[in-house]
């Protein structure tokens, strides 16, 4: 019977009922924080849009305001790039800004740089593999 017990069962068997309750409350609090996280919501919305088949740039662009689409169109005329490319760059910039705000020290969105901590961990992982 003991070999069927998982690591969580072994962990909670050594703590009291009040400690279990406190641990459960903390875990539920962390789960609630993750649900309210804008990056989590963006990732969830993207996954849902992809699953529904509505995740294309064109369909996302159609949901934007007329003024925004007009500005992208004018910008595409001057930059000689497609509206979809500009919209994609805008979405990537928004995501990078959100990551930079949530996790400072990883990327520099304005300059397009990976900062030292992320780059060092990448080099470390690349050297291990």
Structure description:
This protein is mainly alpha-helical. Helices cover 74% and strands 3% of the residues. The protein has seven helices and two strands. Strands 1-2 form a two-stranded antiparallel sheet. The two termini are 38 Å apart.
What is this structure, in a nutshell?
With 129 residues, the chain is mainly alpha-helical. The chain is 74% helix and 3% strand. It has a two-stranded antiparallel ribbon with strand order 1-2.
Q: What is the mean predicted local confidence, pLDDT?
A: 75
Query: What's the arrangement of strands in the largest beta sheet?
Result: 1-2
Structural class: mainly alpha
SSE pattern: HHHHHHEEH
Radius of gyration: 22 Å
Mass-distribution shape: elongated
Report the end-to-end length measured between terminal Cα atoms.
38 Å
Q: For this entry, what is the oligomeric state of its chains? A: single chain
Tell me roughly what share of residues is in helical segments: over 70%
The major β-sheet equals: 2 strands, antiparallel
Low-confidence stretches: none
Strand content: under 5%
Number of helices: 7
Strand tally:
2
Keywords:
single chain, 129 residues, two-stranded antiparallel ribbon, 74% helix, mainly alpha, 3% strand
